[in-house]
Design goal:
By secondary structure, the chain is mainly beta. Helices cover about 10% and strands about 30% of the residues. The termini are far apart.
Length: about 110
């Protein structure tokens, strides 16, 4: 039995010599290729498809409303020294005038 790389179910079973299946989430994988799949999932891309890394500078591509703030973050605002994190909002940063913020990578482009 193999541990499922998608849902971590410990009951993955062999379908063929090089293919496994998960009974809980129906994910199929080749144990020889799972390391490459995880690396591809961990990459964060901006609105133009460029790879983002910790410490990059980005520019916001559209006005972003902020709950509790009287005005949105304007398109064209430059954000320096981002940090990549896991989750839906995969960029942590500090924006001048707004403070610490979590952004989605789809709303920024690499500067």
């Amino acid at each position: 039995m193999q541990k499922c790389p998608s849902c971590a179910c410990p009951y993955g079973y062999a379908v063929s010599d090089d293919l496994y299946n998960c009974p809980e989430c129906a994910f199929e994988w080749n144990p020889n290729e799972t390391k490459e799949v995880k690396e591809e999932e961990e990459t964060v891309k901006d609105a133009n498809g460029n790879l983002l890394q910790d410490g990059d500078d980005v520019v916001i591509v559209k006005d972003l409303p902020v709950k509790g703030a009287p005005k949105p973050i304007k398109a064209g605002t430059k954000v320096k020294n981002i940090r990549i994190v896991e989750g839906d909002h995969n960029i942590d940063c500090k924006i001048t005038g707004f403070g610490s913020m979590a952004l989605k990578s789809e709303f920024v482009k690499k500067a």
